[in-house]
UniProtKB/TrEMBL annotation:
Name of the protein in its database record: Rhodanese domain-containing protein
InterPro entries in UniProt: Rhodanese-like_dom, Rhodanese-like_dom_sf
Species, as recorded: Hypothenemus hampei (Coffee berry borer)
PANTHER family named in the record: THIOSULFATE SULFURTRANSFERASE RDL2, MITOCHONDRIAL-RELATED, THIOSULFATE SULFURTRANSFERASE_RHODANESE-LIKE DOMAIN-CONTAINING PROTEIN 3
PROSITE patterns membership: RHODANESE_3
């Protein structure tokens, strides 16, 4: 089952089956926040963060910037995002509002050969709901 792809697509696209994508749910996400090695990348737009709030320990890299951000040198990444660039083996958890954009970011990171990337499928929506102050 071969399909025709252009050389440009071959260089930048790797098919990642959805069933191979690692997911994180609320309790695991909450636990992983205590791990100083874990990097949380929130791919929502800055306006969403201002309006709704931010996840603990997260770096905001909007989805449209993820691929280029992960290609930056450490120095440029540090200058732009105020944190060291994650290494290829660094545990990264992507998050967004409900898990769809973060899945896209996860796929982009895997295509760039990042090895330990997960998607917080509940996203901000679940986080805010489960952390409401009563």
């Amino acid at each position: 089952m071969y399909r025709s792809i252009s050389p440009r697509q071959f260089a930048t696209t790797t098919e990642i089956p959805r069933e191979n994508l690692e997911k994180v749910h609320f309790n695991e996400f909450k636990h992983l926040l205590n791990d100083k090695n874990v990097v949380v990348i929130d791919v929502r737009e800055p306006e969403e963060l201002k309006e709704l709030g931010t996840l603990p320990k997260s770096i905001n890299i909007p989805l449209g910037e993820v691929e280029e951000a992960l290609k930056l040198s450490n120095e440029c990444f540090l200058q732009k995002y105020g944190q060291n660039k994650p290494q290829k083996a660094t545990p990264i958890i992507f998050s967004c509002m409900r898990g769809r954009r973060s899945e896209t970011a996860q796929i982009k990171a895997l295509q760039l050969e990042y090895k330990n990337v997960k998607n917080y499928v509940g996203g901000w929506e679940e986080w805010a709901e489960k952390n409401k102050k009563e």
